[in-house]
Amino acid sequence: MSKKSKRAVGIKYNEAEPSQAPTIVAKGYGDLAEAIIASAKENGVLIHEDPYLSEFLTTLDLGQSIPESLYYVIAELLAYSYLLQGKVPQSWRDAMPGIDDKV
What keywords are assigned to this protein (predicted)? Predict the structure, then answer.
């Protein structure tokens, strides 16, 4: 993908409001996409590259919640990112004692 067609989308999940869907907080193409990615890296935000997912997410407006059809995809990405950071939700600890030893 050329720099011109590169795109980036930032989503935010509010841990304090787990019943709310993640929302679009940044999006852009080309140089703006590069800046979004650079800012994410500088701030320790994990990055997932998926051209099909980003193509769809760029059609959403800033502040818009992700559609229900993407809940499972985004939930899997969020869960994986939490594990990469060594975070284990309390509900997982309750359901699977000893999970902290495996992460």
Answer: Bacterial flagellum protein export, Protein transport, Transport
